[in-house]
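Q: Fold this one first, please.
A: Sequence and structure below.
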Amino acid sequence: MKSIAMSDALRPLRPVVATFVLLGVLWWGFDQLLDRRAHPNRDITAGAQAPERLVLEAAPGGHYVVPGEINGEAVRFLIDTGASHVAVPGAMAQRLGLSRGAPLVVETAAGRVRAHATRLGVVRIGGLTQYDVRASINPSMSADFVLLGMTFLRHVDISQRDGRLILEPGSGR
């Protein structure tokens, strides 16, 4: 009787394995493409070595989302020129160790909500840094990003060209 080697027995499975490997690589590549499209500014770094002039690409919904830092901790910011101040979701404020100050009522897109005043020691996006930034902690906000409002943006020159948002140090710096 003839013995069959293990590699000969598995030979019919080679196309199946190759197909699964190819599908896995395609899945990973497509996932990377979708992530890049959803977060076009994800590679922007914050800190002293980062550029002060930021050119942001809009995410698919037309919003500008950029990674940054609050008190040295990584966060994602949604640029919101309609927000009068920086607004931090309650759960994120707790993670960041922010102290709740005086209670206040703020107007949001969802209506009036109760929030708490707070101060952010350092806020950074790219090479743009602001100190002692007035903000609010919004316990009813469940987003995974911080609204970067005018208490930060008023110190920045903002322009929009060719579907890009450009942030630069303010001229009154």
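Q: Good. Now the second chain.
A: Here it is, same layout.
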Amino acid sequence: MTKLTPNDESARIQRFRMRLTNELNQLLLLRESSSESRAAVHLDQQSVGRLSRVDAMQSQQIAIAADRQRQRQIARIQRALSQMDSGEFGRCLDCDNDIAERRLEADPATPLCVSCASLRAV
């Protein structure tokens, strides 16, 4: 990574912080708005038969799986924001090398450099 002046680095971090904060807020709103679809399945009087219950349970499971994925992304974003506060943002969690700028541009919450991510994928 090219050595940036403190002002350039601050502007870079602020740009990533704004992106991550916006994404975090969207995820939290989506999580809140979808809470009803993750609730226990209660059939109303219009629901008829076993298939309606199976459909409702399947929809509930899909909503729960989507929420788990949102929770993982929320945790990744919160970790990245914490790293910004501690001055560790942009460092790989495994090898402590800099994460490539293009990788951070694609996903500012990424915790790993390309090399370490590819090792974990194997």
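Q: Anything worth noting on the second one?
A: Helices lie at 6-33, 49-86, 101-106, 114-121.
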